[in-house]
Amino acid sequence: MLETKNGMYLPTDDFASKSHADQATYQAMYDSSVEDPEGFWGEHGRRIDWIKPYTKVKNTSFAPGNIDIRWYEDGTLNVAANCIDRHLETRGDQTAIIWEPDSPEDDALHITYKELHANVCKFANVLKDMGVKKGDRVVLYMPMIPEAAYAMLASARIGAIHSIVFAGFSADALGARVAGSNAKVVITSDGAPRGGRVTNLKDNVNQALNNVADDVKCLVVRRTGQQVAWRHDLDVWLHEAAQNVSDDCPPEEMNAEDPLFILYTSGSTGQPKGVVHTTGGYIVYASMTHQYTFDYHDGDVFWCTADVGWVTGHSYIVYGPLANGATTLMFEGVPTYPDAGRFWAVCEKHKVNQFYTAPTAIRALMGKGPEFVEKYDLSDLKVLGTVGEPINPEAWNWYHNVVGKGNVPIVDTWWQTETGGHLMTPLPGATPTKPGSCTLPFFGVQPVILEPTTGEEIHTTAAEGVLCIKDSWPAQMRTVWEDHERFEKTYFADYKNYYFTGDGARRDEDGYYWITGRVDDVINVSGHRMGTAEVESSLVAHPKVAESAVVGYPHAIKGQGIYAYVTLMNGVEPSEELRKELETWVRKDIGPIAKPDLIQWAPGLPKTRSGKIMRRILRKIAEDDFGALGDTSTLAEPEVVEDLIANRMNRH
Ligand code: WT7
């Protein structure tokens, strides 16, 4: 049992002594990282193999009008070589990737570093044959199969920039991203089995490409063997093309600041933006956080349950672990198939040492009862991780007691698509934890709490306000794809000279951080970010919808649910049928994760006299907390609110 002191869970002496960092080491390293970032990152940058070593370490500016972030800018390297080739001599026969398929009846795969090398080289040569060159964009729309990792690493190997679109997104969303990055090739599979059901990925790709760009080629991995509609001259089967290429492909020499990938993410306004991550700083930081946050040691089996369509999958299924020569587990399925014990069955089967998942999954499994966990031997677990949203103490305690049997440290990692890797997290051998707190910053990270209206930094230890970061870290996003102005406007305009995270936070008397949630119009659904503006613009695109406002509300499993107020066109009658029609509309337009959980028919929306929607009021009504509406004196038509309250959808 982990000992507690003042409500904190302490690392055991035994764990601390074997860990990469005990408390004193963390403190000393953290201090040096902020006192001398050049020295610190100059030293730790050498954890990566460089073709041409850097002489410059940090060249970053958050100054208004000059947002410019460069790390290791004169160094050259190749990320795929760092994730594969450099391990061949020492661990060529070690498993790099364990693949666990959707169905437990099917065999798992163990792919060694040598096999990974051959597969990635072939994949890279196929891409080259399809005309992909350094700097070209390649879109991935893939199930969780080893070929997803091969495709990422093959792109990195030849210097192409990958942009992964989560396979749960719709054909329309995929099309927009292919067009947005002007991609040359889309990589997909015939179908994607998940939870016993198959999504027809290739069909979606056909539809997407038909609408936006009918000259884009498609590389197709055979996964299910189902029939697919083939676009002659444009589509290529991987298994056929791979027969004609060599299993050797020399890695391209890349500059540290060349883009490695684009990943679209939702914000408070407009359509999703393409977050750009570059090569050198990203891989240094992904590898270092993977090692320290999870206390990863050689020979451990590491499992991150995310999908490669999210940044968590990029940094902690593929790049961080493989850069460290780890064995990383990739899971095709879902936590509840064939039953709610699947995660734990997989942990037992593959002797997982570090397990990393999201609070929403923990809450969903918690509801199914402890018996699903107790059936399995989880004695190999050394570290448990969580990411995606604040973890409620009930879920934390269940994770700690039922999964970890009270013995296993939990790391609650706070970070974002934009940050590339963990910014705040406990280190399991160093940091006493408090359920619900992401505790302290990682090396080199300087969080600050600002007073929201004045933007003044609050210097007292205990503080609450908006969370910003004072200085750059190596894996920071560099720009928004082809829109540097939007980058500056989104992250550096509201609070000058800081990176603005979009989150609110509290710092307690011990200096521990507690994320209080987004302060912008972004909602967090099952640990995934959704912009309310995006859902609104989808709804108003429906011919029967006049106006819409979307807010988040507390949801027992998802963290936040999507609550949509919809005003219909004159003469259109609300009906259950129309409600279903709108749900399907949004699903088709964006994807299942954007589907509103609740739709309320609103004869009107509460607006100020200048016509601005008063979202604060809409949030309160959606939360079923309308006793606390606050100041409503600026409302143009107060009776609108009465109607919304009377017909609210979320009643306790
Ligand atoms: C937003 C970022 C980074 C991978 C997953 C989501 C919230 C993330 C935590 C945590 C409290 C968290 C924040 C953040 N968030 N992790 N441990 N505790 N909140 O990536 O889609 O870019 O979303 O997720 O609100 O801003 P993302």
UniProtKB/TrEMBL annotation:
Instruction: Enumerate the GO terms in the molecular function aspect.
Output: acetate-CoA ligase activity; AMP binding; ATP binding; metal ion binding
Q: Which domain of life is it from?
A: Bacteria
The entry's comment on post-translational modification says: Acetylated. Deacetylation by the SIR2-homolog deacetylase activates the enzyme.
PANTHER family given in the database record: ACETYL-COENZYME A SYNTHETASE, ACETYL-COENZYME A SYNTHETASE 1
Q: Which residues bind Mg(2+)?
A: V540, H542, V545
The UniProt function text for this chain reads: Catalyzes the conversion of acetate into acetyl-CoA (AcCoA), an essential intermediate at the junction of anabolic and catabolic pathways. AcsA undergoes a two-step reaction. In the first half reaction, AcsA combines acetate with ATP to form acetyl-adenylate (AcAMP) intermediate. In the second half reaction, it can then transfer the acetyl group from AcAMP to the sulfhydryl group of CoA, forming the product AcCoA.
Q: Which Pfam families match?
A: ACAS_N (PF16177), AMP-binding (PF00501), AMP-binding_C (PF13193)
Q: Does the keyword Mitochondrion apply?
A: no
NCBIfam families per record: Ac_CoA_lig_AcsA, PRK00174.1
EC class of the enzyme, as a word: ligase
> Any idea which UniProt keywords this protein has?
Acetylation, ATP-binding, Ligase, Magnesium, Metal-binding, Nucleotide-binding
Report the gene name: acsA_4
Tell me the Gene Ontology biological-process terms attached to this UniProt entry. acetyl-CoA biosynthetic process from acetate
Q: Which PROSITE patterns match?
A: AMP_BINDING
What is the recorded name of this protein? Acetyl-coenzyme A synthetase
Catalytic activity from the UniProt record? acetate + ATP + CoA = acetyl-CoA + AMP + diphosphate
Task: Name the needed cofactors.
Answer: Mg(2+)
Limits of the AMP-dependent synthetase/ligase domain:
85-472
Cellular compartments per GO CC = cytosol
Give residues annotated as binding CoA: R194, G195, G196, R197, T312, S526, R587
Residues that bear N6-acetyllysine: K612
Instruction: Identify the residues that bind ATP.
Output: G388, E389, P390, D412, T413, W414, W415, Q416, T417, D503, R518, R529
